[in-house]
UniProtKB/TrEMBL annotation:
Species whose genome carries this gene: Streptomyces parvus
SMART domains on file: HATPase_c, HisKA
Subcellular localization(s) per the UniProt record: Cell membrane
Entry EC no(s): 2.7.13.3
The reaction(s) this protein catalyses: ATP + protein L-histidine = ADP + protein N-phospho-L-histidine
Location, primary (coarse class): membrane
Membrane topology, record value: Multi-pass membrane protein
A Gene Ontology molecular function term of the record: phosphorelay sensor kinase activity
Annotated protein name in UniProt: histidine kinase
Length: 368
């Protein structure tokens, strides 16, 4: 037993010395290629075995011939180990280099393409994650392009919509100033109407900027859904009468919700005004509210004739106003964008779908 312990001790000391030396070399070469690191690891393994073997051999006083045989065998094993480590290192380094080139093109704004070949499991996992990230970035770039297009359209539409009333205001102000207005009262009423219209547009811009900046502050309170919808219907009734549209709201469940009453009144008001303006005379705008598995759903159905399928994903985008034939004379395409922003701030979602004769806008809110 004593001899065995001594052999184990000598072998351990020799291998430990080789291991410590190898660890120092690895630390010095830690920033070099993977091929060098693998070669050092293989060399350390063989050196540790050789050191332990030679230490035991010297302690056992083997003959020079036996020591030569042992050294030759270990040297051959070291040669094969180093060759295998170099081949493996070069293969992994090549796969890593291909992944680096693919990632570089991906970082330059392209799409990541998984390199050909069979990399290691870790490199394969990294390639899959990069491919998933590339897909997310492509989607993000597409949304950014759509938002940029919406911003350009919004600026163009706002400029046009503001230029028209400003030109009218200037003409009426000059007429009043020169005393050329035959009916000054009518001019003043028209000026007030145009000012209110521009004030509404500026208010929508301010509300949208707060939503997009994340500075919209909600003051939620427990409100009955039928009360909230009833107030919105009462507020939209004069506009419906003016357009000859009938408002229907007889399918409203008495469900409590925890929302900001002022902001949700704006949501319902925007949906109702949008529906009334796009519904032809003698048409119907129906409002319904009920509890569902996903929360509380409030829907507004109009008679606009439907929205083209290719436009449905853009309905809630900033500045979207549909085709020219369906664009109302007032508004800058901010109402539905404000609706989505306020609803999402309440942890809800806004959706639209086509129905027979029109479309249905639905707002889903969490239950109280």
């Amino acid at each position: 037993m004593t001899d065995v312990l001594l052999i184990a001790l000598f072998a351990f000391l020799g291998a430990a010395a080789a291991g410590l030396l190898g660890a120092g070399v690895l630390r010095l070469l830690r920033h070099r290629s993977l091929v060098v690191s693998l070669s050092v690891v293989a060399g350390v393994a063989v050196a540790a075995m050789l050191a332990g073997t030679l230490t035991v051999a010297w302690a056992m006083f083997l003959s020079p011939h036996d020591l030569y045989v042992v050294t030759t065998v270990v040297a051959m094993a070291a040669l094969i180990s180093l060759a295998t480590a170099i081949l493996l290192g070069r293969w992994v380094a090549d796969r890593s280099r291909e992944l680096t080139l693919a990632t570089r093109s991906f970082g330059d704004g392209g799409t990541f393409a998984v390199p050909a070949g069979q990399p290691t499991a870790e490199l394969a996992a990294l390639a899959r994650e990069l491919a998933a990230t590339s897909a997310k970035l492509d989607s993000s770039r597409e949304r950014e392009r759509a938002l940029e297009t919406s911003r350009r359209e919004l600026v163009a539409w706002i400029s046009h919509d503001l230029r028209t009333p400003l030109a009218g205001l200037r003409a009426m102000a000059e007429a009043l100033e020169d005393g050329m207005a035959a009916d000054s009262g009518r001019y003043l009423r028209q000026i007030r109407t145009e000012v209110e219209r521009m004030n509404g547009m500026v208010g929508d811009l301010f509300e949208l900027s707060r939503i997009q900046a994340g500075s919209l502050t909600l003051e939620p309170a427990r409100i009955s859904l039928d009360e909230l919808v009833g107030d919105a219907l009462a507020g939209a009734d004069p506009l419906a009468r003016e357009h000859g549209v009938r408002l229907v709201g007889d399918r409203i469940d008495e469900v409590p919700v925890e929302v900001d009453g002022k902001e949700m009144s704006r949501v319902l008001g925007n949906l109702l005004v949008n529906a009334i303006r796009r519904t032809p005379p003698d048409g119907t705008v129906a409002v319904a509210a009920h509890r569902s598995d996903g929360g509380v759903v409030v829907s507004v159905t109009d008679g606009c004739g439907g929205i083209p399928e290719e436009d449905l994903p853009r309905v809630f985008d900033t500045g979207w106003r549909g085709s020219h034939a369906r664009t109302p004379p007032a508004g800058a395409g901010l109402g539905l964008a404000i609706v989505r922003g306020i609803v999402e701030a309440h942890a809800g979602r806004a959706e639209v779908r086509n129905v027979r004769g029109g479309c249905c806008f639905s707002v889903t809110l969490p239950t109280a």
